[in-house]
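Q: Can I see a sequence and its folded structure?
A: Here is a first one.
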Amino acid sequence: MILTKENIANSIVLLCLATFVLWYAIDTHNASSSMENIILILPVAAITLCLCIYEFFTQKEIQAKEEKDDFLSVIPVVILFTIYVLTLEILGFDIGTIIFLGLFLFFHGEKRLPWILGYSLVYGFIIAYFFSAMLPYPMPMTILPTDY
């Protein structure tokens, strides 16, 4: 690994992220090691730590300056996310997630309507089903049943 300012900054961010994830996983396990409480946190923590280690050892020197998104290009996504969160109770988590994913893909340059619809429907329902099944409280849904 070549030591550049970017690699040092990236390594510090990775170290902070790994430290936080490790602390959170240990704290969760110490609070309650029952399977219901750690079924999601420990696998996600392990995957995140593995990704941090992988990224740390595969950092390369940045050859070309990365194209930065200017502030104005981020505003539509921030507004879209705000509308998504504020309308979840009205639209339901399932329909709201599908609409958010479709519009997010569109704002990021995807123009193929079948791809936007297919991706949004498949992953929107998968995400909604996963969270409604994993969370101990009911999620507002429009199409999917809320009691699993």
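Q: Show me another, different protein.
A: A second, unrelated one:
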Amino acid sequence: MTYKVIVQGTGFVGKMVIRELVVHPDFEIVGCVVHDPAKDGVDAGEIAGIAPIGVAATTDLDAALTLPADAVAHFGPTAALAGQNIDHLSRALRAGKNVVSTAMTPFVYPKSCPSSMIEPIEKACREGGTSCFTTGIDPGFMNDLLPMTLAGVCGRVDRIRIQEILDYSTYTGDYAPMGLGDPIEQEALLEKPEVLIFSWGHTVPMVADAMGVELEKIDTVWEKWEAPERIEYPLGAIEPGCCAAVRFEIRGWVGGEPRIIVEHTNRITNAAAPDWPRAKIEENDAYRIVIEGSPNIVQETALRGASGDANAGGCLATGMRAVNAIPAVCAAKPGLLSALDLPLIPGHGNMHLKGSE
């Protein structure tokens, strides 16, 4: 079966996904929704930097939703624009389109979201007979799917630590909420525990529920590294006295101690925070899962784009995790879904046979 897809959002992730889908045997792009008026009417292929594909982009979401399609692949803005995202997701779901999205990171585990936030989506799912799945890389498959899978080969699990170790030098998205580049004394938005847990911590209760344990509390740890001298990078510079790296933890407590821990070490260039965690299989830019138990497990994953860039590789994997889930989301019962509601998604059709492109 070929699934007809409307791509919404043609930023860094959306463009890469379009380039992959035009040669994928299981998917057909039938529509493209953009925010920038300058892209209105432009062929989606041209926007993605490839040859025209015969699909004109539009800023009119409702017009696009009249197209016959199985799903909308939504690569919208971050959860900072929650109202806009919820409105767009709801309109697509009511229109009978299943949705996969990378935008609203709290939705990776809807059970942990406030009812006021998820009720409009659940209502739209009921009205449209549709399902909605949100994913990402972190929060997302690197700290839900992979650690839960590894825990499934253990006889005993004492502690799970999931580490993101990234150099943000080439990341074109918004890392301002982490405070990178700000004066060291300035409090970052994500430094507030309630904001950090809500934005990036919902995989902690998901893992706890999957393992059948009850969390006593979730707390956070936040550290900053101050640049002693000017650090230049491709997108700008970090001035002396400003934050060039952050390390934080979101910790789920069981049995009086932290047992499920999501840890980030995010820096601007490898010159920053030299004593903080580093990747082992690459110079930097990897995800590491450490399980203490029986057996002990250490698994490290490095994602790279065609040019070797880690941010491109991670962003593409984020988008394709969502798109590859479309068949399972279409087959699911209506409602908001998490990784716990989906079967194994092996990437059907991804191994392109020679001459098939």
